[in-house]
Amino acid sequence: MDNQFFKNIEKKTGVNMKDVLELANSLQNANFKDEKTVRHVIKRVAQIANRKVPKELEDQIVKTIIQNGKQLDFSTIANMLNNKK
């Protein structure tokens, strides 16, 4: 991907793209039907974005991902980070 693309995302979100890419790579083989895995991912995204996720919201996100089989990928993570700004 284009280096300017990453710089633009960093500028817009205030998030280090190296951290996001490491997270995205770790998600490639993750089991999103496993609640523990999903909670870990949510906590990691919140940490990277420097945001607190209330327990109620975390529970809702976990339920949605596990029940709907929603996949997390780089685009989804970027959208989550952008929506938190």
The rough form would be described as globular
In total, how many beta strands?
0
Q: Please state the CA-atom Rg, rounded to the nearest Å.
A: 13 Å
Helical content (DSSP H or I, runs of 4+): over 70%
Q: Main sheet, how many strands, which sense, barrel?
A: none
In total, the number of domains comes to 1
Overall mean pLDDT stands at: 79
Low-pLDDT sequence parts: none
Pattern of helices and strands: HHHHH
Assembly of the depicted chains: single chain
Structure class: mainly alpha
Number of helices: 5
Distance between the termini: 23 Å
Strand share of the residues? under 5%
Protein name: Sporulation protein
InterPro entries: SpoVIF (IPR025942)
Pfam families: SpoVIF
